[in-house]
Design a protein that fits this description.
rod-shaped, 3 helices, alpha+beta, 3 strands, single chain
């Protein structure tokens, strides 16, 4: 096995280069870590759109003359249009309600749709009223 030898000047240069490279690497790692910590503390941009929640009630609750507010979906996209989430939530509710009406048409015995979907602004809230009328449309747009 052969060991490389060096004179004093080249060994000192090698040692200096290793120390400088190690110092630069350590500085870069510290910068990346600090940047990661700062970024992880930031919350994502949410724009100015309001959060809307899609609810449904239950046929079992209706049969028992009780109210049920079941969480289906939350519309909280960070769009610049403040009506974006409301429009998409209401469109989804109308489509779901149209599907319910298609499967269970209204009759003389059941003149109103008692089970349905609706939207409310804000996050999920277990307390509140269930609407008596549900908007339905197929096809539908966002308003």
């Amino acid at each position: 096995m052969r060991v490389a030898s060096c004179d004093t000047g080249s060994c000192q240069l090698l040692t200096h280069l290793r120390a400088e490279m190690s110092s630069k690497l350590t500085t870069r790692i510290c910068c990346v870590c600090a940047f990661s910590i700062i970024i992880s503390g930031c919350s994502p941009w949410t724009g100015s759109a309001t959060t809307y929640t899609l609810y449904r009630n239950s046929s079992i609750a209706v049969a028992l003359n009780k109210q049920a507010r079941i969480h289906v979906a939350m519309y909280d996209a960070g769009e610049s249009n403040p009506d974006f989430n409301r429009g998409n939530c209401k469109m989804s509710a109308r489509l779901h309600n149209a599907n319910i009406l298609e499967q269970n048409p209204l009759s003389e015995n059941s003149p109103i749709q008692r089970v349905g979907f609706w939207c409310e602004d804000g996050g999920y809230d277990a307390n509140g009223d269930v609407p008596e009328v549900f908007s339905a449309a197929f096809p539908t747009d966002t308003e």
